Amino acid sequence: MLTEATGQPLDRVDGRLKVMGGARYTAEWDLPGLAYGALATSAIARGKVRAIDVKAAQQAPGVLAVLTYLNAPRLQPMPDKVGGSLFRGEGGITETLQPLQDAAIAYAGQPLAVVVADTHEHARYAATLVRITYDEAKPELDRATASRQTLPEAFTGSKEEPLQVTVGDPKAALAAAPVKLERVYESAITHHNPIEQLATIARWEKRNGADYLTVYDTTRGVDTLQEVFAASLNLPKENVHIICPFIGGAFGSKGWLYAPALLTAMAARVVGRPVKIELRRQDMFSTAGQRGATRQTLSLGATRDGKLTALQHDTQAQSSMVSGYTEPCARVSRMMYAVPNLGFAHHLSHLNLPSPCPMRGPGETVGGWALECAIDELATELNLDPVELRLRNYADKNPETGKPFSSKHLRECYARGQELIGWKARNPKPRSMREGNSLIGYGMATTMYPAARREASARTTLFADGRALVQSATHELGNGAYTIFRQISADALALPVENVRFELGDSALPKAPTTGGSATTATIGPAATAACQEALSALKQIAIRDAKSPLFGATEDAIEARDGRLVRKANAAQGETYAAILQRAKLPSISAEGTAKPGDEREQFSFYSFGAVFAKVRVDEASGSVRVAQLCAVYDVGKLMNPQTAHSQFIGGMAMGLGAALMEATHYDARNGRAVVRNLADYHVPSMADTPDIIAEALNIPDPHISALGARGIGEIGCVGTPAAITNAVFHATGQRLRSLPLTPDKLLKALAS
Amino acid sequence: MHPFQYQRAENNGQAVAAVAKNPEAAFIAGGTSQVDLLKEGVHKPNLLVDVAGLPLRQITDFEGGVRIGANATNTEAAYFPAIQARYPAVSEALLAGASVQIRNMATMAGNPLQRTRCPYFRDPDQPCNKRTPGSGCAAIGGYNHVHALFGASEACVATHPSDLAVALAALDARVQTTGPQGSRTIAFTDLHRLPGTTPHLDTTLAHGELITSIDLPAFAGRSHYLKVRERASYAYALASCAVALEMDGPKIKRARIALGGVAHKPWRTPAAEALLAGQRPTEKLFQATAAAAFADAKPLEHNAYKIPMGRNLLVRALLETSGLQPLAGPAGTAFAASVGGMAGQVATPN
């Protein structure tokens, strides 16, 4: 009897390929006749191109064409909505600026020309020869004084994600609260900085007399990109094919900013050859998205015994002039604690900076940081243990919607986390623990992630040799998608995992949403299962009608799949292998599609994952250096499909949260809006020396409502919560509250001097 | 990247001649910093003369000290037994810098010649007098978090990024060169210049002048390097310092201090050094020394934090070098040099 593949720590099925260099990433595809594009970008943040002199570039060796707004192909406007996500308008998810359509400049680094040449080196050099003069205007770079300020209604237009909400009467409750606290928290601009930079290869052909576009792109949304291309280039969707079998990390980038990809297609059309554009690392700081800076005000009202009576979370977010993206900072505040009077507001300022987009834990990472730091401050105010304060406000149902949580075991997370870090052995008094030159501190935070699930389809093909192929247009970001969907499919087919392959990353495959929002396991898992069930059903029908089959004449219900065979439920000895059925029917294979989507359960329950993060830090007082001595988390994320890839997702997320807490920040010149930090020497992500031996555990309790698999997503929860746990530990170590991310040595020294 | 010719140097003389006769030529050795600048379009030579193959890689005893060939890699020098044992500040500075991969490529002459990390220098779309003389200094009035406290000018507030250079300045190293005018010896403290009105010139080397070795003079004291950075590894110093102490019984005979990350060159502090001569080491004395070392600091908008940081760092370096406090790790390693240490559970410093 086969054991279930899901839940097993299967090694990554693409691991060997990646280590051996056999996994082909976008920039590595080689097409016959490939030409290379390079961008020339705006040196100023606001104004217009006055003149653009491309003569020298055109005459440089190997140059095939130079595209500017004067000669570039015209594009249709960005669609209003794609795949249910609002693109345009306040709260919309994407940059709506179509590249090279006019002379206007919205941010520094905006592409103003594409130089196409026969080699990468020729293109890059010629791009430096494009001479641009400007009519420069003073850029708007300050949230408080920005001339375009709005109150967006909903994040990405979703009715589930209103951005301005009041439940009860938080104002009155705050006024009446025996204990009140109002604090302002600020977070810096950060960048995803995946190791693989954005890249696109575009090839135009005529097929049956019509234009046909093939695109290799680093996208985590092949179907979304297909729609964007079709709409922008005025092509039928069927004539656009997007391919992306491997992504070298995304973390929120590579989903919602399309200018580099569109420019590649435009360049390829102009030169009549396939073209590749690969962004430089410097360009990743201007055209690949970012997490905008935030200023958040948390107002808490509580009784003396620590019952929250009011919570108001107001965010000042920022976006570019050409995007309505709004960091949804109240995503944690709106659901975490049992508070009767709850309000949140999001205020958006448009600036002459590059466009933001989701970044791992959009809203949750910095919004949850602010909330969980404020809760820690309240615990200090009330002289309560931070865990105890959270337990006193434990929510069994969603405080905004009143719906019960589908599955919540956060108390167990708190308890186990305390054991892992040795919480009770610490001296709870701030600034009371020391080792050598270091102050020692412990801190904790609650974490969560919305357990989204979307509609998706998959196709399963059973082959006459006994093997199976399952396909869906989802993506492998390095998260383990190839591995876990093979496991899930193997179980659905009752086949060993070695006999099942999973294919993804191709818009020609059955439809799947953009990979994001930690929704992929819960979305694609059920779709793959449904497709496998459909394929088995089709196979049963063949057997039932085949007089030579031991299953002849049975009803479908009376047959089940077991160990690679269809057998009669009543007598498993009566049955045969899938291969035998197909071979006798002289069929090389049989295919079926399946679709799965969330249902009525979404109306009944509130779906979230939970967790508790604990940190121990050392603070070197003389230098302001913080090091994380221990980082432990316990997560309640439903059933794990693969504990090994899950663990990697957890610790990767926690390391990213550590970076957000201690070092990640992109600075822009306050006068001219140019990125000052433009490389990975100056943009610090945690090195191994910054990363302790992270302990991440999961309760592994199936969610009975999310799907038959019981699995919620895990891509982002590790990043959320970690910054607050570290910040709270720094307070415990030093007695100083730091309310500005990241906690760099200069800020520590300033706080410690006060 | 701008197009350039590339040639391998045949010998010192040929290399010097090839670069000296072409004002747009440059030497290249490890290239770890230079290639970035080529790719950024900041460095635009029309000829690169590769000196990495010249036989300048030996590390040898020399006049009671150590002669380090210009082409010895940072790794080779850092782990050279005589250097690690007798000049631990040099090994500590090297090993607290860059990454293993970079140290394996970077040369000992190339390391002190790396260009500033001022972000404006690296962006061809920003004014920078160091990159484009006369274009202005964007760091003044801009984002000047990593910039100079000492010796800056209205033309440039950049700092020198090398850790190694700070240790060499404190140890009074000497630089041997061969150039179009023949060979000469330069005191390491005279190798780098202050920006003044010509910040595009980092050093006093003539065009085409090639470093052949770096010489550490005989030294019987203790030396030590400390560095603060925004992450535990692979980051440039926010502030650093190197200390060399020679003792006479319980008293300090002679002290040398060089500060890093605070000026256009490793910043020696003669007034502070003088306070230590003939004194018994005490924390109080070191506090006074640190106060004197930073007395003339002139902070910009975003870098005033370097003053308390630098003072605290110098006090700790003096305490650790004099033995009043233990080192954070074995002498001559990155563990001794890295303030804050590594993440994770570690034993109390030995």
TrEMBL record, chain A:
Query: Could you list the residue ranges that cross the membrane?
Result: none
Outline the extent of the Aldehyde oxidase/xanthine dehydrogenase a/b hammerhead domain.
Answer: 20-138
Cite a single GO MF annotation: iron ion binding
- Top-rank taxon of the source lineage equals Bacteria
The family database entries (InterPro entries) matched by this protein are listed as: Ald_Oxase/Xan_DH_a/b, Ald_Oxase/Xan_DH_a/b_sf, Ald_Oxase/xanthine_DH-like, AldOxase/xan_DH_MoCoBD1, AldOxase/xan_DH_MoCoBD2, AldOxase/xan_DH_Mopterin-bd_sf
Do you know which SUPFAM superfamilies this protein is assigned to?
A: CO dehydrogenase molybdoprotein N-domain-like (SSF54665), Molybdenum cofactor-binding domain (SSF56003)
Q: Which Gene3D superfamilies match?
A: Aldehyde oxidase/xanthine dehydrogenase, a/b hammerhead, Aldehyde oxidase/xanthine dehydrogenase, molybdopterin binding domain
Q: Which Pfam families match?
A: Ald_Xan_dh_C (PF01315), MoCoBD_1 (PF02738), MoCoBD_2 (PF20256)
Q: Which UniProt keywords apply?
A: Molybdenum, Oxidoreductase
Protein name, per record: Xanthine dehydrogenase family protein molybdopterin-binding subunit
From TrEMBL, chain B:
Record Gene3D superfamilies: 3.30.465.10, CO dehydrogenase flavoprotein, C-terminal domain (3.30.390.50), Uridine Diphospho-n-acetylenolpyruvylglucosamine Reductase, domain 2 (3.30.43.10)
Q: Which UniProt keywords are listed?
A: FAD, Flavoprotein
Write down the Pfam families for this protein, in alphabetical order.
CO_deh_flav_C, FAD_binding_5
- The FAD-binding PCMH-type domain, residue ranges: 1-221
Q: Give the GO molecular function terms.
A: FAD binding; oxidoreductase activity
Matching SUPFAM superfamilies: CO dehydrogenase flavoprotein C-terminal domain-like (SSF55447), FAD-binding/transporter-associated domain-like (SSF56176)
Official protein name in the record: Xanthine dehydrogenase family protein subunit M
